[in-house]
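Here is a complete protein record:
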Amino acid sequence: NGVRINNIRYADDTTILADSITELQTLMVHITQHSQRFGLNINVHKTKQMVISKNTIAGAHLCVNQTRIERVEQYCYLGTMINEKWDNTQEIKCCRDKARTTFNKMSAFFKSHKLSLKTKMRHTRCYVFSVLLHGVESWTLNYAITKNIKAFELWMYKRI
């Protein structure tokens, strides 16, 4: 009995969700028409189409103003990589690698004997974990991924 949200917007980024290509095309026409009333045009070169499904769906073509929208297998939306199979293993690995780089850039700070363990832990949570957990809201966690994140956490703690 919830409300279905089919149009997600953040600044000038928009995501449209639909159960079928026909429904999606109808939404695109509606958005295009309303945007044009306010002098806004959809940039068809930056607009991408992606089908997220367990089944392979061929021939799903979306058009804006008679221009076919490029279909992609993966797309970076608000800094998070999304793919057709909704597999976020690569995204999580990328976040872990960025967090490791952040940690390594701060290695002199963590090796300092002048700072307390409490201060080092606070900085780790603030600067490293924020990078590691970027986009965590959209992750689908399983045992292997959780184990990998915990291993990275232990790796950091050993170096502090």
Observations:
- The two ends are 49 Å apart (CA to CA).
- The first strand starts at residue 7 and ends at 10.
- The longest helix spans residues 21-37.
- The chain has two domains: 7-83, 89-159.
